[in-house]
Write a structure and sequence with these properties.
Blueprint: H1 2-19, E1 21-27, E2 37-43, H2 55-69, H3 73-98, E3 107-109, E4 117-127, E5 130-131, E6 136-137, E7 139-149, E8 156-167, H4 177-199
Parallel strand pairs: 2-3, 2-4
Antiparallel strand pairs: 1-8, 4-7, 5-6, 7-8
């Protein structure tokens, strides 16, 4: 039984490691060595959502389905869809990244005073997943993360694309889509922090 549990744990860890893929687009992680603070900028423009041609089409469909069942709920969905970015996703990314550096060796934040560098989180793909009790599916986020000197966005120091950052709540307790997606941003930040730690050592 002990052996079986060990095998399951190893497989689980392996699936987590390989589920998120990183592809360096420009520069090298080593270019980030010595940088201790990043101002964060989040960009959701031209977001790809599976099964829809655009985010606008996605919102139109989801709002109509809700309005047909409960008038007024469609507009509430749209409001929360955008509000979750500032209220859930971004704080979760910041919290998840910063706690990987217990002594504050590296810090990220919005409007971070004194930060010479900006880290742009450009979300390119978002899947909310679902949880209807008996069946569920993790949320997924793809993002391009670019670093440049603040005020000089055309001179990219480093850029990497992460795909399949998955989000889910503990023990499957993630019935709210905003919460599931925020957990994907937490995983994205965790992976990024781990890569920076490992690849800027030398």
């Amino acid at each position: 039984m002990k052996k079986q549990l060990t095998i399951i744990l190893v497989l689980f860890c392996a699936s987590f490691v390989f589920s998120q893929k990183a592809k360096v687009l420009e520069g090298d992680f080593k270019n980030l060595k010595g940088i201790t603070a990043y101002n964060l900028e989040f960009d959701y423009a031209n977001l790809e959502i599976p099964k829809y041609d655009s985010e606008e089409e996605f919102l139109k469909d989801k709002m109509k389905k809700r309005e047909d069942k409960n008038p007024g709920s469609g507009e509430e969905f749209k409001k929360s869809w955008f509000a979750d970015r500032e209220n859930r996703y971004e704080p979760k990314f910041i919290e998840s990244f910063n706690k990987r550096f217990d002594e504050g060796q590296i810090k990220v934040g919005k409007d971070l005073a004194g930060a010479e560098y900006t880290m742009k989180i450009k979300t390119t793909f978002m899947y909310a997943g679902y949880n209807v009790g008996v069946v569920r599916q993790n949320s997924k986020v793809d993002a391009i993360i670019s670093v440049y000197k603040t005020g000089n966005p055309n001179n990219i120091l480093f850029s990497v694309k992460y795909t399949k950052a998955e989000g889910n709540g503990a023990f499957g307790n993630d019935y709210n889509s905003g919460y599931r997606i925020s957990e994907a941003y937490a995983k994205l930040a965790k992976t990024l922090a781990a890569h920076i730690k490992k690849k800027t050592k030398k």
